[in-house]
Write a structure and sequence with these properties.
The chain has twelve helices and 14 strands. The radius of gyration is 26 Å and the shape is elongated. The chain has helices spanning 5-10, 13-26, 39-46, 50-63, 110-122, 137-146, 161-172, 196-209, 226-241, 262-281, 294-305, 345-360; strands at residues 66-69, 74-77, 91-95, 126-130, 150-153, 177-180, 190-194, 215-219, 250-251, 288-290, 316-318, 339-342, 370-373, 376-379. The longest helix has 20 residues, at 262-281. The protein has three domains: 5-77, Winged helix-like DNA-binding domain superfamily/Winged helix DNA-binding domain (Arc Repressor Mutant, subunit A), CATH 1.10.10.10; 87-194 and 346-373, Response regulator (Rossmann fold), CATH 3.40.50.2300; 211-337, 3-Layer(aba) Sandwich (Rossmann fold).
């Protein structure tokens, strides 16, 4: 019988040449930053044809050992994770505003980074955290120079300038990177995200099953966010499948930071009331409201009471994110929430690290891969 397929592949001339060049790099025979010898030189030294050398160099470029510079594709060595003595070669950098323990059944955003840390450690690798608001150009240059095994950016739908600078740097240096969310700068990378369209659909579909027909879909004041459009598509699809007409979406005023106290809560609730008055007081008013997040639902509930309307009896109120039991706003408003959606943040973090290792181990196609995590509808008892 012949050799197993994996062993036969491992011994191909292209891979043997690539492995030899890797060894030269790690041993310092081709120092970091120097030009790689020409195809002719390598062909003569290794006693293989130039086509084999060319294919080996293409493989090394894909793996991040070398990179092309200039129109003639002059290749230079790039220091990466295989550099001797680098602690980070077996480490995953996790870019997140906070990493702290949270209960798995709650929907707080910090679950994503916490889960990513745990998944990294279970895979047998180190992890270290980077605060996106504290990154500067020098730190980014040092990071890519040390070249961690991979990077996970556990950000949201908007990336700050330092994070975008970091993404540009890791892409240039070929460091495997996964990003959470749908920010424009994230689309060039492997990424993981919640399936917001499925979440919007499940909520609207459930409300329709509760005999609700005039369902109002609320959005934040920045409709350019990817998840806003995705949830709207889900809502619209559920409405049209049921033969119902989607109501125009209403954009809520921007919340300038967290609610500070009861006076602040009441001020924001009155501002929300001004945006909802036409829908709430008209004779054929709404019979359900879908809020962008659970904390919005408390404010909408208080706003509706200003017009003598009671959530739960006059209309059903739904949230999103499944952290309503922990919202600070519950101190100032009794919320008869009908349903919410759990994005399964814990699974998002774990899947992000799995996707990162799939890229590192070359189990993915060349282009960016997006994995959507289906959320879970939570009907509040």
């Amino acid at each position: 019988m012949g050799q197993p397929f994996t062993e036969a592949v491992r011994e191909t001339p292209r891979l043997r040449v690539a492995q030899t060049i890797k060894q030269w790099i790690t041993e310092g025979k081709i120092p970091d930053g120097e030009r790689v010898p020409s195809e002719r030189t390598l062909s003569e030294q290794l006693q293989v044809d130039r086509g084999t050398v060319r294919r080996a160099l293409d493989l090394l470029s894909t793996e991040g050992w070398i990179r092309a510079v200039g129109e003639r594709r002059t290749r230079i060595v790039v220091p990466l994770r295989e550099r001797r003595g680098s602690l980070l070669r077996n480490s995953i950098a996790i870019v997140a505003r906070e990493i702290k323990p949270f209960q798995r059944e709650r929907g707080w955003f910090a679950q994503i980074s916490r889960s990513a840390v745990d998944a990294t450690h279970l895979a047998g690798f180190h992890s270290f955290a980077l605060l996106p608001d504290r990154l500067d150009g020098e730190e980014i240059a040092r990071l890519v120079g040390e070249a961690p095994r991979g990077v996970f950016v556990a950000s949201s739908d908007r990336l700050n300038p330092p994070t975008e600078q970091l993404l540009a740097a890791v892409r240039e240096h070929g460091i495997p990177t996964v990003v959470f969310g749908s920010a424009p700068a994230a689309l060039a990378f492997d990424r993981v995200d919640s399936d917001h369209e499925a979440g919007g659909y499940e909520l609207a579909h459930w409300l329709i099953s509760q005999q609700r027909q005039r369902i109002l879909h609320l959005q934040p004041s920045s409709p350019d966010r990817g998840w806003v459009a995705a949830r709207w598509r889900g809502y619209e699809r559920a409405m049209r499948e049921a033969g119902l007409t989607p109501l125009p979406a209403i954009a809520l005023p921007h919340l300038d930071g967290p609610i500070r106290d009861q006076a602040h809560f009441e001020t924001v609730a009155r501002a929300f009331a001004g945006h909802l008055v036409e829908q709430i007081v008209r004779p054929q008013g709404i019979d359900a409201i879908m809020c962008p997040s659970d904390h919005h639902a408390y404010l909408i509930s208080a706003a509706a009471r200003l017009f003598g309307k009671t959530p739960g009896s006059d209309f059903l109120l739904t949230g999103y994110d499944n952290y309503f039991q922990d919202c600070p706003e519950r101190d100032w408003e009794h919320l008869p929430l009908a349903a919410t959606v759990d994005k399964r943040n814990w699974e998002i973090g774990a899947q992000a690290i799995q996707l990162l290792f799939d890229r590192i181990e070359q189990r993915l196609p060349p282009g960016p891969v997006c994995r959507l995590i289906k959320p879970e509808l939570i009907v509040v008892k």
